[in-house]
């Protein structure tokens, strides 16, 4: 059973659907261990009010993704709810006319992509940078708006984007995306960006995240204790969940980012020294990790492992720009769209 306070909120004729949603979300996230599950399990998912129904479905999806063990029952439930929420809203999505509908559409895309890339039982590996691109596409499709709730949601998406960049391993797409994010949001605070979204983002972003982002963006080594502190202290429920259930993968990704910088300083390096340099508390198979990086093109062409000497020998980096052309064009268009959104929210 839900409390009288929650019941009164749901039945109130003085509050809009989005106000009810935001109130319940705050209430739930303040009471994760107690009242939260009762509220979630008694949400009016089939309300006659389409907007309220969609928002309640999205609230339940988000809670399950972030806090509940996802078994067969939860997967079936999530799939059904995603289908229901995906069918709404219908018709045109003009945020000036109905910001609540725009909020629903953006939130749906956000949660749908999280589910597909992080929690779908068919996935075998996290493709964080593909998920980042999905988030940026969602952001680029938000029309010009002065609605505080939609702007706050955009800020939350940017926070996720930055978190996922920190969780991702070495990826050729990351460099340009980090640069774009810094220019858009002034995360490293080298230059000031005067926009509503940037200002709100910088008030919410954690300092540990800012520090790691700056190191990544400047292509500097990250200490494992810094990365470990980010995972342990993150306020983002999905980050905490992934860190708890996939720690070995995240350690591999951490190492990938650092190993990809080694050719700037070494012509060759003994495999054991990599472990000593980055001090990781695990028996991770460095040779297997480096081999996979070579196969995936994450190290300069010609890089190889001398197995007799247990040494990683770096090739000379000669980028083939032709393979980036289509991706660069795609990212450039996306960047222009998001930049226009940032600019127009301040007009």
From TrEMBL:
InterPro entries in alphabetical order: PCI_dom, WH-like_DNA-bd_sf, WH_DNA-bd_sf
Protein name: PCI domain-containing protein
Signal peptide: none
GO cellular component: proteasome regulatory particle, lid subcomplex
Matching Pfam families: PCI (PF01399)
Domain PCI: 245-331
Lineage of the species this protein comes from: Eukaryota, Fungi, Dikarya, Ascomycota, Saccharomycotina
SUPFAM superfamilies in UniProt: Winged helix' DNA-binding domain (SSF46785)
